């Protein structure tokens, strides 16, 4: 079984953190823009609710693993000089933030079950495309 999710939003790095004070101690927390991004992702996932329930019900962690096929679309992937634009996020950072939201919070399957993946950057209208596939071990 496969679950295709296409979100019309530009990827945001999970590294957008800031120092915060917790009582007498300091720590690191997500910035306001990261929290807003996570809220936007959750709202964009609502149309995929019924498919995600079917996906979760079909998945058996004793006999399955998940393959994730990621496409991060950027409308300005290349500069005028033909180089990769430095404003396009690092793929590792992109995946961490979005994968946690989709797998853990939305679908309800721990992302540790993603055992293989493909990742690419594409020059296209800003979007995040994720195709999840249940595979037999």
Polypeptide structure, described:
This protein is α+β, with helices and mostly antiparallel strands. The protein has helices at residues 32-45, 49-58, 91-107; strands spanning 2-7, 17-22, 25-30, 64-74, 114-123, 127-136. The protein has a four-stranded mixed beta sheet with strand order 1-6-4-5, covered by helices on one side. Strands 2-3 form a two-stranded antiparallel sheet. A hairpin with a 2-residue loop joins strand 2 and strand 3 (25-30). Helix 1 packs across helix 3. The protein starts with a strand and ends with a strand.
Instruction: Calculate the mean pLDDT score and round it.
Output: 87
Q: How is the main sheet built?
A: 4 strands, mixed
Q: What amount of the residues lies in strands?
A: 35-45%
Order of helices and strands: EEEHHEHEE
> Helix fraction?
25-40%
Task: Describe the strand arrangement of the main beta sheet, using strand numbers.
Answer: 1-6-4-5
Outline: globular
Low-pLDDT residue spans = none
By secondary-structure content and strand pairing, the structural class works out as alpha+beta
Number of strands: 6
Terminal CA distance? 14 Å
Rounded to an integer in angstroms, the radius of gyration calculated over CA atoms is 16 Å
So how many helices?
3
